[in-house]
Amino acid sequence: SSTFEHAFAAWALRSEHSRQSEQNLSSSSSCDVLRLESAVMDDELCNLNLKFADCHFLLTCPTGKSENVYFMELLNDNELNGMRVADIQDALASINEYAMERSHLELATMLDKILSYLVKVVSCHKPEPSQTQPSGAADSKMLTTKAEPNNSVNSVNSSKKRKIDIQPVVLDTQKRKQQKKVTEKDLPSNFAPPTSAATRCLMKNLQQAQHADSKANGYEVSVDPENLYLWKVKLFGFPEEEPIGADMQRSGVDHILMHMRFSGDFPFVPPRCNIIRPRMKKQTGHVVEGGAFCMELLTQAGWSPAYTVDAVIVQIRATLLDGKARLDLSNKNDYQEWRAVKGHDRMEEFHEHFGWGRQAKD
To answer: 187, 229, 230: which is closest to 344 by C-alpha?
Structure first.
């Protein structure tokens, strides 16, 4: 973790010098400081606890020589104003989308992008100071004060705090607000909220999936920019001699879109997986109501924390072939995810009662 702490300190120093060459120290607020509060590292990931104004963030950074995949989340959303949280989440969505679209990002580049967004959305909400201090005294205090401890973050000695000012970018928040939001009925009732342990595990699995031979394995993975716990998987390359391959070729469909949702208890709880489009004919491909899958692997009884997401996707693809999946060309509507939740629960209840010798019905 000391490597990341040193890299952060070097970035802060470079950013300060760059800012000082453009404007006077006294012209910025002490709120425009991105602080490193702690760094915790394992074999493949490093978690940086960052603070900007009164907001605490977790930046998950990859280590080693593998492709860089960064992900940032807000830790103390329950302590902030609701409208303010919405603006910050919009900024985080843009930050994570930026990271997902680029490989081998340097930490400094990622921090520059993070700060450019946070200066815009966090600083605009900061309260007016009750008293005016001399600019020199305020700057001196800001440059020497250490990060305050917070109960929601495990604080350790931070690196030197630097005052930074980067011109903010304009957020396309209107576009994001128009996107369909996930409602409670789209999620299983027993799913736990996101946790740092699940986030680390998902990041490891994401790196593995994105480094897999997609052409050979017949799938491609992307992550929802606003939610690391929602994966979007494209299944393709089905043999033309198989029913599903022939249907896809005949109808001009080049892939099957599947969603995978993960609980904060992952990897101890299996993901919920369901097809979004195209629809499958009933009683084919082991697909049940809502596009859910009738697979013991995806139930709590058949799940093992040792399974990787890559292995699960490969098994789902094989299950479609084994069940002679066919496209329902008469129905062009997408599956509804709340129905997939219902379909999965019914399937699991059916097999708990009758075992796995019988096929669950829609």
So the answer is: 187
Q: For 268-325, how does the pLDDT look when each residue is reduced to its tens digit (9 = 90+)?
A: 999 999 999 999 998 899 999 899 999 999 999 999 999 999 999 999 999 999 999 9
CA–chain centroid gap for 29, Å, is 31
Annotation says 294 is catalytic: yes
In order of 10, 230, 337, the CA distances from 63 in angstroms are 18, 23, 35
pLDDT at 298: 94
- From the candidates 61, 201, 273, 294, which is the catalytic residue? 294
CB 214 within 8 A of CB 238: no
Query: What does the angle CA 103 – CA 272 – CA 352 come to, to the nearest 5 degrees?
Result: 150
Instruction: Give the contacts of 82 (CB within 8 A, at least 6 positions apart).
Output: none
Residue 203, C-beta contacts closer than 8 angstroms, at least 6 positions apart: 44, 45, 60, 62, 69, 71, 228
Per the CB < 8 A criterion, the answer to whether 158 and 36 are in contact is yes
- Residue 1 confidence (pLDDT) above 70: no
Rounded to whole angstroms, the Cα distance separating 91 from 228 reads 15
